[in-house]
Amino acid sequence: VGATIAILLSRLGFVDWFVNIIGNQVFSSFFAGLFFTSVFTIAPSAVALVSIANATTLTVAFWGALGALCGDLILFYFIRDRFAENLVSSIRPSVTRHILNSFHLGFMKWLSPVLGAIIIASPLPDELGLTLLGISKTRISILIPISFVMNFVGIFALLYFANTI
Questions:
Q1: 53: left (phi over 0), alpha (psi -120 to 50) or beta
Q2: DSSP string computed for 39-63
Q3: Number of other CB atoms surrounding residue 20 within 10 Å
Q4: What is the residue-wise DSSP string for 90-140?
Q5: What are phi and psi of 41, to 5 degrees?
Q6: What is the pTM (predicted TM-score) of this model?
Q7: From CA 163, how far away is CA 43, in angstroms rounded?
Q8: Is 11 exposed, middle or buried (0-12, 13-18, 19+ CB in 10 A)?
Q9: Average pLDDT along the chain
Q10: 85-128 pLDDT, tens digit each
């Protein structure tokens, strides 16, 4: 559904209008990157980022990743503070304790942050990756560089492949 909406917005000229109304490539890259994180807005944001990056792929990827970092921080606070509490309260206490303890011991202690970082870099929405990072109690000081670098890699790969096609 999101891809269909993105194609429709592109064909109707909304993306060009969006870039022209903002006028500044840096700000429009940041704004499009801000929406690159959510399941509902990733497709239109990807179309906007590709249309912004004519020849300046690194600049658009940098500012887009900075915007995506801000979007990830908003989602991370929401997931960690609201979603995790609701999830924990809806599951039996013994099951909750077992699941949460598995994210802090052994194999899952390092696997969940790695999987979360890979999901953030992929074209998949960041909510799942941020949930894994939130459940594994990743600190903000660790999340910020992971989110920025992984979003930069993801946006740069998107722009690179879009420009080569």
A1: beta
A2: TTTHHHHHHHHHHH-SS-HHHHHHH
A3: 10
A4: HS-HHHHHHHHHHTSSHHHHHHHHHHHHHHHHSSS-HHHHHHHHHHTT--H
A5: -120, 5
A6: 0.79
A7: 17
A8: exposed
A9: 79
A10: 666 566 656 655 555 555 556 666 677 778 888 988 887 778 88
Distance between CA atoms of residues 79 and 152, nearest Å: 22
For residue 99, the tally of other CB atoms under 10 A from its CB is: 14
Two structure tokens written together for 66:
């900075």
Q: Which two tokens stand for residue 19?
A: 């870039």
d(CA 115, CA 75): 17
pLDDT of 48-65, one tens digit each?
888 887 768 899 999 999
pLDDT at 33: 92
Least confident of 25-34, 69-78, 81-90, 97-106: 97-106
How far apart are the C-alpha atoms of 30 and 35, rounded to whole Å? 9
Is the distance from CB of 72 to CB of 37 less than 8 angstroms? yes
Whether residue 150 contacts residue 120, with contact meaning beta carbons closer than 8 Å, is answered with yes
User: Could you tell me which residues come within 8 angstroms of residue 113 by beta carbon, excluding any fewer than 6 positions away?
Assistant: 132, 133, 136, 138, 142, 146
